[in-house]
From TrEMBL:
Keyword ATP-binding found: yes
Official protein name in the record: ABC transporter ATP-binding protein
InterPro entries found in the cross-reference section: AAA+_ATPase, ABC_transporter-like_ATP-bd, ABC_transpr_LolD-like, MacB-like_ATP-bd, P-loop_NTPase
Annotated GO CC locations: plasma membrane
GO MF term set: ATP binding; ATP hydrolysis activity; transmembrane transporter activity
Domain of life: Bacteria
Keywords, alphabetical: ATP-binding, Nucleotide-binding, Transport
A Pfam family hit: ABC_tran
Organism: Pilimelia terevasa
Domain ABC transporter stretches: 6-230
Keyword Nucleotide-binding: yes
Length: 230
């Protein structure tokens, strides 16, 4: 069993008077692919945002390796997301004014890499993910599947220890979604990257090795392994 890389203990978070998380505990091992599932409004995205340091929980702890994440400053959490974490959102969230290669290179540039090395790494990842032709095209000139694979390249370009994917195929047709998931799982397994995959789709969850079901902000006690897809 690989060592625990990321953990949450007794996470609570509310939006106003509406609870989103109610005492969630979670452990994710190095190289593990975990699907967080449940209906809309059950707290899936809030859990991912807490684990990735995008928001702080109201109470409870998030630990990454030996470091407590939830009590670090926003600047420190941002640095961690640029170096140790990769984030893939449902709609990619590419910068509309930048071509594909520059979008992918952004995390490296923000971390202080040279423009030449960042551009080379970006183009290498785009080629690896089968979208080299998108390197010089703006997001508006790409298909939805191309945009999402560019966004996946951006999430992977820093060689992160953890990738957080929030409904990564929700805006794609089935074929494009399958390509994104297949590449994400393949690369995660090759590189020993942990993946937290938020989805309401059982077919997407089947790509994971384990499933955590949320219901009304709490982990379902009947959560079971899903076995993982090849």
């Amino acid at each position: 069993m690989n060592p625990t890389l990321l953990s949450a203990r007794a996470l609570h978070h509310s939006y106003g008077h509406t609870p989103a998380l109610r005492g969630v505990d979670l452990d994710i091992a190095q190289g593990e692919i975990v699907a967080v599932t449940g209906p809309s409004g059950c707290g899936k995205s809030t859990l991912l945002h807490c684990l990735a340091g995008l928001i702080r929980p109201d109470s409870g702890q998030v630990r990454y390796r030996d470091t407590r994440l939830d009590d670090r400053s926003e600047a420190a959490r941002s640095r961690l997301r640029r170096t140790e974490f990769g984030v893939l959102f449902q709609f990619g969230q590419l910068v509309a004014e930048l071509p594909g290669a520059e979008n992918v290179a952004l995390p490296l540039l923000l971390a202080g890499a040279s423009r030449r090395s960042a551009a080379a790494a970006a183009r290498s990842w785009l080629e690896r993910l089968g979208v080299a032709a998108a390197a010089d095209r703006l997001p508006g000139e790409m298909s939805g599947g191309e945009q999402q694979r560019c966004a996946l390249a951006r999430a992977l370009v820093t060689d992160p220890a953890v990738v957080f994917a929030d409904e990564p195929t929700g805006a794609l047709d089935s074929l494009a979604g399958e390509k994104v998931l297949t590449e994400l799982v393949r690369i995660a397994r090759e590189r020993g990257t942990a993946v937290v995959l938020v989805t309401h789709d059982s077919q997407v969850a089947a790509y994971a090795g384990r499933e955590i079901a949320l219901r009304d902000g709490a982990a379902d006690p009947l959560t079971l392994p899903v076995g993982g897809a090849a």
